[in-house]
Amino acid sequence: MSSRGRPKPKLRDLYYAEPTEAEKRAHIDALPTAQPIVTAVLGAVVVEHELEVLIRRRLPRKDDDTWKSLLDEKGPLYSLNTKIEMGYALRLFDEVTKNNLHIVRNIRNVFAHAKKQIDFDHPLIQKEINKAKPPTVRYKKDFKTFVANNVSGYRLAYASLCVLLCCELVSQQTRAIKEKTRRLKKKISQKQRQRIAALLLSPLGLPQGSHQQSFPVHQTGSPSSSPLSRLMGGVFGLGPKSDDKTGK
Q1: How far apart, in whole angstroms, are the C-alpha atoms of residue 216 and residue 240?
Q2: Spatial CA neighbour of 15 closest among 72, 90, 56, 86
Q3: Rg of the chain in Å (alpha carbons)
Q4: What gap in Å lies between CA 61 and CA 68, rounded to an integer?
Q5: pLDDT in tens, 212-231
Q6: Would you state the CATH architecture of domain 13-183?
């Protein structure tokens, strides 16, 4: 039975499918013990997903159709490289995180496209991983020291780098959400103050909207010294602030 009005599913649709929390946890748990090529590709997959989430939250227009067009083969965010550069251009992370993301991308590409079987013990792979630096604020331990003291070798070092990047990108998402919530609360609070001020001023015979204007002034031009005016201005933050220091 065919569904009317709905496009037929395509193989490309699997690319846009969002993983569940359980699936993301399973991906991360598999990194240290999977085959080298699986570790390389899967580590980049989990990092790329968190990067996509972070970029999408910043976009003013983030509906599914627009997002899919950006990730399309001809879209500006088709490759991991363009996503990294876009995130850096939007100031979603610093240069250290940008370089670490490119290291993961480079290693992923080598394992995914190499014609012969390679491992993380290859000198060139080790050299690339040694370029990584931990995020300067959250992780102060030197990454090279961690690699040198790690008996599990460079595969676990690469997996740890991917997990650190995921943590850093998720923390950026959390900070963005908190900042958006703070601005929304401030906006709502300001509207509530204006609404309460309007209700208080209306019985006094003052016109609607006067709480958004300056308070009555004397003929001399100085701000009104009425206790009501001072009270309303102080409680609700309304009315102009006088620059005349003598009027204090």
Answers
A1: 11
A2: 72
A3: 28
A4: 12
A5: 444 444 444 444 455 545 54
A6: Up-down Bundle (1.20)
